[in-house]
Amino acid sequence: MSKTKIDKSIKKSAKIAKKELKRELKQANRAFDLRENATEKQRKDNAKGEKPSKKNRQRTEDQLLRERIEEIAKRQQVGEKWYDLDNAALIFPASDSVDMSNMFRQGVLLTEPVDPIVLQEAVNLIVPRFPSLTSALKRGLFWHYLEPTQTPLVVEKENTLPCRTMAIDAGSPLIRVGYYGNRIYVEYSHAVTDGNGGITFLNSLLGCYFKLLGHEIKDKTNCLNHLDKPKPEEVSDDYRRYSDDKKRKRAMDKTAYRLAGKRLPNGSMITVTAVMSASKVNAKAKEYLLTVGQLLTACLIKAVQEDRDFYVRSKKKPVIIGVPVNIRKHCDSKTLRNFVALMHVEGEEDRDIKALGESVKRQFAEQDNEEFLKAYVNFNVNASRNALFKILPLPVKNLALKFIMKLFGNRATTCTFSNLGKISAPEEFKDKVLRYDFNLGPQPTVLTSVGAAAYGDCLTLTFARTIEESGVEKRFFRYLTEMGLDVALETERVEE
Amino acid sequence: MKYCHDCKAYAWEGLDNCPLCGSHLEEVEEKFELYDKQNAVVSRPKVTYRRESAFLKKKSFVLILSIIAVCILINVIITPWSLWSAYVACGGLAASFGVLSAIYNKRRLYSILSVSALVAPLSVAAVDAIQSLDRLGNFSGMSFSLPYAVPGILIGITIALDVLAMIKKRKYRYYTVALLPTTLLSLVPQILQWTIKPSTPGFLTFACFAFAIANLLIMTIIYWTKMKGEWRRKMHL
What was the ipTM of the complex prediction? Predict the structure, then answer.
């Protein structure tokens, strides 16, 4: 064979080998791709079948946490003693309806995120210390009464709008404790306590919580030690103790203007919380020679009046603000149950803030005194002491009270403004608690209510409304910003 | 920090629109010092409006009354010879007081049983009376309710309360208290028997009468100390 022929055959076989190699490589690549795709698919399938998505994982974690909290709550201990309702609370079980209940919420914003397990442990410790607050409502033949319940108070993660209705006679405690992020809140039924009793409970719970976290809480300002036994003066009905059967309350004959608007679904309630500097608001109030409460009441009256004018509604009925007064200021009372009276502050028409402020100041002076409060308490206590009313069976009493509430209840007020004032709390809370929040729950006819609480230099005002229109708070806060006060706003993140 | 130029107010980072006027919030350089620290730590959950309807809960009784009224109207106009609407009325009221109110008020078992001791015998007696009126035009045809059905139901409920009081150690006082109204109701058939038809022997009604009294006495003796406290709560003035 010649040399050229040999070379040609070599080249030819090399070409063939090259082609085969290419084919092999192609096949190998295809096989690799197929394997890779299969692995990827399998990985995806595995992810679907075994590993939970982030959302599912979160839900599972929440469920596990909830189960653990419920396990801890089972260790809760309760007393044996039962209590009759205080004079102010008698009306609440009758006035409660499916979508309206007399609830209010108090909460704190902490510097650190809340540990729910520790919070539940704190709740377990504090429940026996507050027997009247953590009891359940029961029906008697003539009256409701409070009885320790076997249903434990379980801490819950916030997932609804505030102050949702509580089945008042379901046999569970008439309070709720919840948390979310850095916030702890407690929701109370007015049948068991008022704002001041609520703050003492919240402070005691916080004190216990911080102690369990290893902090030292030595100061006992407005904070009860969970190791102490409940004292009789803390659970007494001080309305009866305070009344003297002499003066009677003057009849409130005026019917107040009522706000109108499109109701939120099923008694849902939206809150708008505003954070302000307490010292700056105080300085502004002093400019007008008023207290903070008086200045804010005057602004609220003005806001409602302007809102009414905006919607061209009748001016026949006056704007009247219901302002609860803490009677404990006027007598030596340590009760944790209801002990408040309600002042009615009427707004004069076509006045500026300064003139309104003077009028509010005068009305505060007329009503926030011992004589008025005694008369108020006597009137209510005497009504409940009526022998005929007492012997009526509970269902008949409830019907009568419902009827009275429909006819006269809440007709005398346009809005409620409840001011807790400066919150007293242990010194050690200062570097742990950023602020206190306070808001009232939905009420049948009072469509907007305002709660105020000040802690350190932080004043929080919370508007709670059951209507879609936010005209009153818009005008209210615009007055305050026009006065040169800084305001920061928060609200719920509602998904439509 | 977020700011509303219309309301001249700062707002929490988690919001896109002003809670007062709905305007879009804008980021601004200046800060509200007091709120700055809070702004970083505030968090709120996403929530929805309550969608569950409370219509039936609120209006179920009115709805049932309306249905009964319509039935009576149709009965009177179209079929005046029959009393079928009376059965509807009887069933409707029994369902409202016995079932719906128990569901909506989340009644406990002891409460359901004591309410049933009133509602069930009344319903049975009413059905008996209606069928007698329908058949004969008077009440002489009432034959099964008073002598048999009503005492039978009451004895059954009394025994159920006894058993539950013994089994449910933590809640026995509620069951023992529920025994009192049930016992009082158990006396009624025999008292009626004595007053309406004294000549007719009512074996079951007398058995119900005697059993209820003896049972209450025995239960009171067994559970006296705890029952005393419960009575004081229930009866306080």
Answer: 0.81
Q: What is the mean pLDDT of chain A?
A: 84
pTM of the predicted structure, to 2 decimals: 0.82
Residue A417 CA to chain centroid, in angstroms? 15
- Picking from A348, A107, A338, A372, the residue whose alpha carbon sits closest to that of residue A241 is A338
Report the helix count and the strand count for chain A, using DSSP H and E: 13, 16
CB contact under 8 A, B170 and A150: yes
- The better pLDDT of the pair A430, A164 is held by A430
Contact A434 B48 (CB under 8 A): no
Within 10 Å of residue A279's Cβ, how many Cβ atoms?
14
**Residue among B12, B52, B53 whose CB faces A490 most closely:** B12
The minimum CA-CA distance between B92 and chain A, rounded to whole Å, is 21
Hey, what are B202's tokens? 């009512």
Q: What is the pLDDT averaged over residues A478-491?
A: 93
Distance from CA of A79 to the nearest CA of B (A): 14
The reply to whether residue B41 touches residue A99, judged by beta carbons under 8 angstroms, is: no
What mean pLDDT comes out for the span A206-235?
92
Sign for the CA dihedral angle at B28, B33, B38, B40 comes to positive
Indicate the helix (H) or strand (E) that contains A448.
strand A448-455
Element (H, E) at B126: helix B109-136
What tokens does B19 get?
């809670």
**CA distance linking residue A221 with residue B220, whole number of Å:** 49
- What is the arithmetic mean of pLDDT over A62-91? 87
Mean pLDDT highest for which of A235-244, A319-328, B200-209?
A: A319-328
Phi-psi region of A78 (alpha: psi -120 to 50; beta: other; left: phi over 0): beta
Question: In whole angstroms, what is the distance from residue B232 CA to residue B237 CA?
Answer: 9
HSE value, Cβ hemisphere, 13 Å, CA-based, for A390: 11
Judging contacts by C-beta atoms under 8 Å, the chain A residues touching residue B9 are 274, 477, 481, 487-489
- B21 shares contact with chain A (CB less than 8 Å): yes
- For residues B106 and A166, the answer to whether their CB atoms sit within 8 Å is no
For B40, nearest residue in chain A (alpha carbons): A111
